[in-house]
Structure formats: C-alpha cells, structure tokens
Amino acid sequence: MKKVLYHLPFTLLSLPKSPSSNVSTIRLTSTVAIHLDIKRCNLVIARLCQNGKIVHARKVFDEILERDSGLWTTMISGYLKCGMIREARKLFDRLDAKKNVVTWTAMVNGYIRHNQIKEAERLFYEMPLRNVVSWNTMIDGYARNGLTQQALDLFRRMPERNVVSWNTIITTLVQCGRVDDAQRLFDQMKERDVVSWTTMVAGFSKNGRVEDARALFDRMPDRNVVSWNAMITGYAQNGRLDEALDLFQRMPERNMPSWNTMITGFIQNGELNRAEELFCVMRVKNVITWTAMMTGYVQHGLSEEALKVFNKMLAADGLKPNTGTFVTVLGACSDLAGLTEGQQIHQIISKTNFQDSTCVVSALINMYSKCGELRIARKMFDDGLLRQRDLISWNGMIAAYAHHGYSKEAINLFKEMQELGVPANDVTFVGLLTACSHTGLVEEGLKYFDEILKNKSIELREDHCACLIDLCGRAGRLKEAFNIIEGLGEEASLTVWGALLAGCNVHGNADIGKLVAEKILKIDPQNAGTYSLLSNMYASAGKWKEAANVRMKMKDKGLKKQPGCSWIEVGNSVQVFVVGDKSHSQYKLLGHLLDDLHTKMKKARETPEDDLLVNVEL
User: Fold this and answer.
1) Which end of the chain is flanked by fewer CB atoms within 10 Å, N or C?
2) Which residues of 238-257 are buried (b: 16+ CB within 10 A; e: fewer)?
3) Is 536 found in the same domain as 578?
4) 359-373: pLDDT as tens digits
5) In whole angstroms, what is the distance from residue 326 CA to residue 364 CA?
6) DSSP 3-state assignment of 6?
C-alpha cells in the first residue's frame, strides 16, 4: 500500500507498527512545547478542511496521539462546514472525545445551520456548561427559524449578556415587525455599539417610521458606512428620494452598496432617468449595479436597452452575471420575443453553474414559450427541472400553454401538479382561467373560479376577475359578466371593466358597451381607448350619429388613441409595423399578402372541419 506523506510545519516521527495492530501512528516531536505542536496541527487540519480535503484532515487527526479539545473542535467544525453533520456527530459522541464549551457550541451551531432547530435545542439543554456565546448561538437559531418568542424567552433567561446578545434579539424583533419591543430593549441597553444603533435605524425605516429613524440617526455617537446606507435605504423605500440623495451626497465615504441603494431606490420609485445619471457617473460597478439598471429598463418597457446594458456588462473586465442578471435579461428577451438573443444567453448560461438554478430554468421556459417555442419550453420543464420543479416552474409552463391557446395541455398539467401534491396559488389559477378564456371553456373556467372562492389560502385577485369577465365576454355571455362585475361593487377596477368592453366590441353589443364605457370613464375620464372602442361599436351597429358624437367628444378633450404596434424578427433585422403607417419599403407587397391571407381565412371559416383536415394532410 502506498504511504501518504503529510508535509507539516514541524517534525512528525513515524513509529513502527505494533505487532498487534495494522495501524501506524504518528507522535509529535519538537524542540518547542507540545502545546505549540498541537496548535500547528490545528492549523493544518483547519486548512485542509477549508480546502475541502476533509478525508486528509481526518487522517492527520487520527494519526495524532495527543489531542486536546481544540483539535476535536477543529475536526468537528470541519465536518460541519463541509455539510457532513452525521460524521460530525459521530466524532462528537465518541467516548474518548475531549469537548469543552466551544465544541458543544460548534455542534449546536452546526444543527442550526442545517435547519435542525429541534436537535440544536436538545443539545443546547444537554450542555454541561454554557457561556454567553452558547446562549447567543441558540437565540440566533430561534431567530433564523422564525421562532421570535422562543428567542425572546431565552434572552430573558440569560445569566449574563453582552452587546451581541442585545443586538441579536433587537434584530430579531425588528425583522418580524415588533419595533416597539425592540425599542424598549434598545433603551434598556447600558452599552451600545454602532450595530445596535444601525439596527434600530433600519427597523424604524423598514416599518415606515422614517422620522423616528432620522431622529435616532442624528443621535448616533458614531456612524459607519452601513449606518448611512441604512438611513438612505429608509428614505428610498418610503419614496423620499430627495432626502435620500441629499444624505448620499453628504456621506463622508461611500461604498458599492451606497451607490446601489440610491440607484435601486430611484428605479423602484419610477425615476429611471435619475438612476441613469447616477449609473453613468459610477466609476466602479458590480453585477448588482448592472442588474439593477437592466431591471429598471425592463420595468419601463425598454427591454432593448436592458439587452444593451447586459452586453456592456459582459464586456466589463471580471464581471460575471448572477441569477438575478440572467432572470432579468431573459425577461427582456421574452418581452421582445427575441428568440435569437434568448438562445445566445442560453448558451452563456449552459457554461455556468446557473444552468441548474430553478429560477434561471423557469426564466428560460418563459422566454422560449413567449417566443413561440413551446416544444423547447416543455422539454426544459421535463428535463431541466426533473429534480426540482417548484411552483414558479409549474405556473410558468401552465401560463405558456394558456398564452398559446393550448387549454387542454394547461389543464392536464394542472392535474399532474395536483397528483404530485404541489399546492396551487393565485398565479396558477390566473393561468388556468386564461387558458379557459382563450378557448371558450366557460364551464371549466367557472369551476376554477369557484375553487378560488372556496380555497381560503388563495386570495381573490383583480386578475382572476378580469380573466373571468374575459371568459364570459368571449363566449358572448355579456349580461352575466356585467352582473358579476356589479356584484364586486367598488372593487371592480378599470382592468375588469376593460375586459368586458372588449367582449362587447367583439360581439357588437353597443347597449351593454355604452354602460360599460360609462363605468370606465368614471374611473379614467381620459381613456382614449374606451372612446375609440365605443365609437367602433356604434359604427358596427349602424349607429353612425352616436359614433360621430363619441369621436367629437374625443376631439374636444384632445384625446388621441395610441396606434397599435407590432414587430417581427427576420434574419438579424427587426421589422416594425404601426397602424396607418405606409412608410415600410414593402408596404404594397405586404398589403397584397394580407388580402390573400384574409381571403383564405374566410374560406376556411366556411369549410367543414373534415375538409380542412384533408387539406392539411395533402
């Protein structure tokens, strides 16, 4: 057998094998004290564990005869850091194990990190001796698992506390919204550090108490960059951007989070231009900065700009996209139906670890489905998410089928999801109702709407009502849809009434359309689209005088409907078409093509389905 040599920074004397044993041992010899040798051994084991060489670390550990509690703690901690909690516990439970309070605390912390809070709690109460770190560790464990009251009870039972104890429990209370309780404890503190003050500033800000946060910020004896960032974040989150910017400009020093906080604040409050200005003057940007700008552009419907920013980021030295970057830029491709760009980004993803990310794969599924590539989207859903399909993935695939009118596939996928025990949420039912609406499955749609009303865990959303009205509207059940909206009372929104108005337009029902239009114009008097639809309905019904009156009202109010726009990618060129625009170089040819298609569609409508199938086969 080949002998493994460990090059340690001191002398190791290999002893001959004992006649009764096949194990060779190593004894420490050095001109320095034994405790120094053990300390160096400790460093070697720690370094091996840190580098993931846990097997080598254990061999070194086993070959050392004189082991103190520090060595045992290091080896146990090494296992825990490598996620090997069972091996750590086996070593911890050995009869010859030398354990002190640090060893016990490390094991408790290991269980907490692996989300085994009950085991951590059991071990904590078995500890023969606890110090303040042990208590702090257990309190933090409760906090991480959302057990705020248990954390507070344990804090109150502590025999002694340090500033970390106070900061841990104050942070816990702040995070669950118990700001007043946190403030009471903060006021009781005899000794506070910058973390204590900053935690309270952030807590007040997060809960909308910006004035209290600023008063506390002004009282701080010492501030660091995190304190300033917390106050700026508070202003930004509460829409007070001028005050946030003023504080940002007064900062004695700024770090990357300072800049990112301001840029994100502007974007979240719809101030894209101001975010751009700040972005442009930043000398150094990280992936969060670039992703924030991409998100801003996508949210403002400027997906092309988002793609340009992505390309610029790739050109920047040393910057690599993260999960958020890929999800955002794929969203931009989805909005543009940019299949070529999406495929290029997919190639980049395939060379990274993010190809296994559920969020990224879900974004890819969404991109392919929005670009009309349902086959690829379904293949990714089946293969790419075989091990970890989450609710987002299921909802995305159901929505994809719904968007393209494949209602049976959407419903079958929902049934499969139910059989596997995946609970549906509000988004799932939006997809199902949309699927039913696009293919006229009225009864199925009403059944799913009834399920929403019966399911206490799902909150009825405006989207659900809009889908239901759209479903009834497409099926010509306009009076029924009108009564449903009337039953909603003040909760009926512009979106819901708009869905019914579209149905009235399709079926040429000007009488109900007029009532619906009146409802919409009460909510939004400047809605040009409503006037335009109502005028078209009157014209379709031969009511030319009423149609002219509506058009005259539009003119008097100075309203003009935004022309419809569509585009298609041919080769590497994007062709844009706007209603009424005759500037396209192939306008006449396209006109003849559309006339030809229109004629064929009319013929198809008059042709029996059996004949159509024969024609397709031919």
Assistant:
1) N
2) bebbebbbebbeeeeebeeb
3) no
4) 898 899 989 998 989
5) 9
6) coil
CA dihedral 152, 154, 156, 160 (to 10 degrees): -130
Rounded Cα distance between 45 and 50, Å, is 9
Q: Which two tokens stand for residue 269?
A: 């409050």
**Same-domain pairing of 484 and 504:** yes
Q: Per the domain annotation, does 518 fall within a domain? A: yes
78 and 106 Cβ atoms separated by less than 8 Å: no
User: Could you tell me the end-to-end alpha-carbon distance of the chain, in angstroms, rounded to an integer?
Assistant: 74
- Strands, DSSP E only, in 95-141? none
CATH code where residue 491 lies: 1.25.40.10
Is there a single domain that holds both residue 472 and residue 506?
yes
Q: Which residues contact 451 (CB under 8 A, 6 or more apart)?
A: 429
Alpha-carbon span 347 to 207, nearest angstrom: 43
Q: Can you tell me whether residue 350 is helix, strand or coil?
A: coil
Are 465 and 513 within one domain?
A: yes
**Distance separating alpha carbons of residues 361 and 127, to the nearest angstrom:** 45
Asked whether residue 581 falls in the same domain as residue 497, the answer is no
Which of 303, 302, 266 shows the shortest CA–CA distance to 289? 266
| Cα atoms found within 13 Å of the Cα of residue 488, Cβ hemisphere only | 20
CA distance 120 to 139: 11
pLDDT at 12 > cutoff 70: no
β-pairing, 573-578 vs 565-570, is antiparallel
Closest of 500, 493, 528 to residue 514, by C-alpha: 500
Interacting residues of 492 by C-beta distance below 8 A, sequence separation 6+ = 465, 485, 486, 519
Task: Please check whether residue 552 lies inside any domain of the structure.
Answer: yes
Nearest to 359 by CA among 317, 383, 337, 330: 330
In SS3 terms, 279-323 reads as: HHHCCCCCHHHHHHHHHHHHHCCCHHHHHHHHHHHHHCCCCCCCH
List pLDDT tens digits, range 225-240.
999 999 999 999 888 9
Do residue 493 and residue 516 come from a single domain?
Answer: yes
Task: List residues bridging with 577 in a β-sheet.
Answer: 566
**What tens digit of pLDDT does each residue of 386-434 get?**
556 778 888 889 999 998 889 999 999 999 988 888 889 999 999 999 9
Cβ pair 303, 330 in contact under 8 A = no
Q: Is 607 helix (H, G, I), strand (E, B) or coil?
A: coil
- Based on the fold, state whether residues 544 and 557 are members of the same structural domain: yes
The parent domain of residue 570 ranges over 566-602
Instruction: Tell me, yes or no, whether 535 lies in a domain.
Output: yes
Residue 198: inside a domain: no
Tell me if 508 sits within 8 A of 534, measured CB to CB: no
pTM: 0.70
Token pair 């002694």: residue: 160
**Count of the separate structural domains present in the chain:** 2
Q: How does pLDDT run across 465-480, given as a tens digit for each residue?
A: 888 888 888 777 888 7
* Concatenated DSSP letters of 573-606: EEEEEETT---STTHHHHHHHHHHHHHHHHHHHH
588 shares a domain with 529: no
State which amino acid sits at residue 604: A
Alpha carbon distance 283, 285 (integer Å): 7
